[in-house]
Amino acid sequence: MNFRFITSLLLLLAVFFAHEAQAQFGGKKDLVKIKSYISFDKVHSGSEVKLAVEVAIDSTWHINSNAPKDEFLIPSELSITGDKPINVNKVVFPHAEELEFSFSDVPVSVYEGTVYIGALIQLPDDIPEGELKLTIRLDYQACDNATCLAPNFTTDTLVVTVAPKTELINEVNQQIFKNIDMSYTPPVEDVKKKDDDGLTGLLESSGLLFSLLIVFLGGLALNLTPCVYPLIPITVGYFGGQSEGNTKKLALLGALFVLGMALMYSVVGVVTALTGAVFGALLQSPYVIVAIVLVLVALSLSMFGVYEFQLPSGLVNMAGGARGGLYGAFFMGLTMGIVAAPCIGPFVLGLVTVVAAKSDPLYGFLMFFVLALGLGLPYFVLAIFSGKIKALPRAGMWMESVKHIFGFILLGMAVYFLLPVLPSPFKEYTLPVFMVLAALYLLFFEKVSDKLKGFKVFKNSFAVLILAVAVWFLIPSDEQSIAWNKFDEKEFSKALEGGDKVIIDFYADWCIPCKELDKLTFSDPSVIAKSEEFKTFKADLTKSMSPEVEKLREEFQIVGVPTVLIIDSSGKEVERITGFVNADEFLAMLKSVN
Fold first, then answer.
1. What's the rounded Cα separation, in Å, for the pair 4 and 1?
2. Where are the domains of the chain?
3. Which fold has domain 485-591?
4. Terminal CA-to-CA distance of the chain, rounded, Å?
5. Which residue has the higher pLDDT, 464 or 143?
6. Domain 3-179 classification at class level
7. What are 145-200's pLDDT values in tens digits?
8. Phi/psi of residue 15, nearest 5 degrees
């Protein structure tokens, strides 16, 4: 007869007699005691929480592990049920000891003393608020050095509070959970975020020189974004009026232009490293906006021949004899850097995140200085070649018209940046009215270039185009959009508590991509129809100095605008948009939200 069969038969007989002994003498139900702990003082619906079970085993006994290595031994099993439906995502058993016993010819995997078993509990999205009663049951088989008792079980009850999603929760029992090697299941959006972490992950994993190269190339690429395009004609017009084709002077002016832009971005980098401030926050101050407008007006007046920027003679000699325009070029770069700041997209927001996390002012200075060099390099080239306009055949008074056109463009930019500080009734009509006046001036009062028929056709065509755009802006629009509600904390909390899906659009009046989203994305009929399944809020971050805006920025971790948050019915943020997306992309995001 096989020795293993005999051993197994004896083990079964031992279990049988042990069971009879337990039945006759009341058994040893207190051999194993359990006590359960939860990882938070309260829980939210749809959340995942840790559960720890402390298992205390009598000192003269042990219990089989969850994998005892002998088919005749009963493994330990943990089960968790609730008076409301829950899911158990994972159970983590501790490391077991392997001991040899007389009743088994192979080492047995066992637990002795006090051990901890962990579990991850998933609460459904629709679980009601209030008390949730959990019943924890441990099935086990206890043995000593000679024999094993019949399988038994012990239970514990844990009452958990399911709180509203607007209520803060706190971690508890951290000392207990240190005994368990267990982490939360990564949510889908976290995995996606990790995969899409692009710039942040790339810079974190790269050395300084390689990071600077990435940032420089990123600055070059930012020139392809639509809201940077207006800077091109302004730059050409400004530098085209500064020199009679003197390449050396234009190179100096271009260098000062880029230096002004680099200085502005470097300051932003240092401020970001020290404070983690929102990129573009400079434009949220009415004082800064007015200062920018004044600079643009001053630059435009020089295009109309009111004056030229002139350096003191001593500085002129120090600059190698360059005449005029040096201050203007520097402040032009400073201003254009601020103009471009709020609308150059996710790349810059990613860089802000990296710099803010580093909290190193020198690192922030270098990163944003190199970014500005990349962003400004094309304008340096434009500055040099803009002077060639003066070398065109039959140059003459028509060049004055060119300067006037660019002067109007600069004034238009000044009006545009002034809009956020104007009273509401004037915001909608000020820029179109200015465009009408500028077009009429070019058509009927700008006569210095009329002798050159080719340029006269160009000038009049440009004026008519500006007039047509202005009239189009003035015509009352019946264009539809998403039915936005002004952001309200109470209404937002109510939406979360009701299990509603939510869209929040964080915008500012000066933000060009915000206006692109409104005009091209949020007005799409398919997007409007799908948005009806959501609670939709708009949060105005134009005046960041106010306590209300600061509170919103901190609560939702807003780095810059535009930022659009899409929240599913369980209250989880599933999408964070930090730049312009077209209607099809946005619609696909909405369709993926449950």
1. 9
2. 3-179, 203-393, 485-591
3. Glutaredoxin (3.40.30)
4. 63
5. 464
6. mainly beta
7. 777 788 889 999 999 999 887 777 777 887 888 888 765 554 434 433 443 444 55
8. -65, -40
